[in-house]
Amino acid sequence: MSDARSVVVGAAQLGPIARDEPRAKVVERLLVLLNDAHRRGVELVVFPELALTTFFPRWSLDERAEIDAFFEREMPSDATRPLFDEAKRLGIGFCLGYAELTADGHHYNTQILVERDGTVVGKFRKVHIPGHEETETWRKFQHLERRYFEPGPDGFEVWRAFGGLIGMAICNDRRWPETYRVMGLQGVELILIGYNTPLHYAPDPSQDVLQSFHNHLVMQSGAYQNATWVVGVAKGGCEEGVDSLAESAIIAPSGRIVAQCQSNGDELATARCDLDACKSYKDTLFDFDRYRMPEHYRRITDQRGVQAPEP
Amino acid sequence: MSDARSVVVGAAQLGPIARDEPRAKVVERLLVLLNDAHRRGVELVVFPELALTTFFPRWSLDERAEIDAFFEREMPSDATRPLFDEAKRLGIGFCLGYAELTADGHHYNTQILVERDGTVVGKFRKVHIPGHEETETWRKFQHLERRYFEPGPDGFEVWRAFGGLIGMAICNDRRWPETYRVMGLQGVELILIGYNTPLHYAPDPSQDVLQSFHNHLVMQSGAYQNATWVVGVAKGGCEEGVDSLAESAIIAPSGRIVAQCQSNGDELATARCDLDACKSYKDTLFDFDRYRMPEHYRRITDQRGVQAPEP
């Protein structure tokens, strides 16, 4: 049971990574998941956002060197080389999130897509950076992504790989319908999303109990409304005192969850993703060329914030 | 328990309307729901799409006069005047869907919003017209909306009424994330949506068992991602041999369903909609001005159909 238009995908969820856990130790965990994936027939393993370190935006850091210590200057690096080598040896592709420091000094929240032969086929840099820029001492923990990361300059590209059309997004990107739609308009069939989502949202704690619901709601609607598979992979569990959402899931173009992690630790959930299943929606209800009405969507690109009607 | 920033809304679901059921009889049913709403403290009653007649696009009709008999040339008309009068007498606002034939010969699928004092404050004409133009004899029943209706030329407006910012959409509009977003960018707080949704979708019957799931998925994500109340109201039940989805629901800005009809017939579901509840999302996670990245959304307005990357 295999054809060129299906991909067996593994959502390789991670539990917490301690602040002092060296990258080599984390890579050992990734290798355990990779080997488990191989035994389960997986062709593409998806690791979470910032999969090599703890989620450092929870701390207010001022020293450049201390901040940059969480970033990768090259990929593969010495620490991640064993992952690249083993994946190539096994013939498994993977998607990996990490903090990227470019040669010319830019800081991005990045994910790369690596084909089964070891080729890096795509790189995505997070577009929607959540949180805040300045330290807010009233919070139990910080969410300083807007201090540490610039928004990705390249938007939402789609790549031909794994026999289909693959896109990527990171964490907060998944809450914005534009994310999926921009990729949907490129015919995307499989969107890979890593995330770190604290259960506690300090600006409005009434949202805390809804984190699981919202996580699946946005990915399921993004999948359905764009007729694409979506794979959402968490770093979950209690990391350095902060509880984070797990609930990694593989979602079909119907919007239905077809596989889901059960723990909030290191765990693999797998599903065979039939890329041709996208067609039953792309060619009917969501035939964009036939049914979309972009002349009435202008506000989406003409304005950034709300413009309410005159009183 | 009442203040200027909350509205008690009634989702006034209808069961089937027979092809030969005269408008006067239908209006009697609307009046029963209106009076029930009054007893339950409702300030705004929402009736479904094409609430005055059977869902006639299921038939292939060629005679102009036979088609136009399903359309209203004026609103209020003689048949609907009792509804307008009684609503004004009771001090209840309402939203009503009907087929509109304009003085200059345009055919629209229309919904109007009437304030508690009887003033018509808004008119919306369905933008996303589903179905097909030509008779397809292989179908068990037709869905000829694209023959009978032109797309609404005015897009998605938002009106100041009922102490807040109110928008409207009709049936298939609700499946498109752009619908909610265009209104979200005008600060919408309450979106009123009528629908007629056959359970059987002839072009891809695998979607049939998912109708209920999809209906709620798109409205719940539209509500959450735009921090707005959404009221979806069905004409449900078996109408002229065609089973249609009921499941009318009132959805909070959190995306959660807070009231839902239980039958597939004439039924009222009510909820107090606190319009200020929108703020907890509009001012935090979905602060559009702070977090949206429209420079990366260009495809949404620049193109209509899919443009896949070069092979």
Question: How would you characterize the overall build of this protein?
Answer:
- The structure is a homodimer of 311-residue chains.
- With 311 residues, chain A is of the alpha/beta class.
- The first copy, chain A, has one domain: Nitrilase/N-carbamoyl-D-aminoacid amidohydrolase (4-Layer Sandwich).
- Chain A is built from nine helices and 14 strands.
- At the A-B interface, strand 6, helix 5, helix 6, helix 7 and helix 8 of A face strand 6, helix 5, helix 6, helix 7 and helix 8 of B.
In short:
The first copy, chain A, is α/β, with parallel strands linked by helices. Chain A has helices at about 25-40, 65-70, 80-90, 145-150, 175-185, 210-225, 280, 290, 300; strands at about 5-15, 45, 95-100, 105-115, 120-125, 160, 165-170, 190-195, 230-235, 235-240, 240-245, 250, 255-260, 265-275.
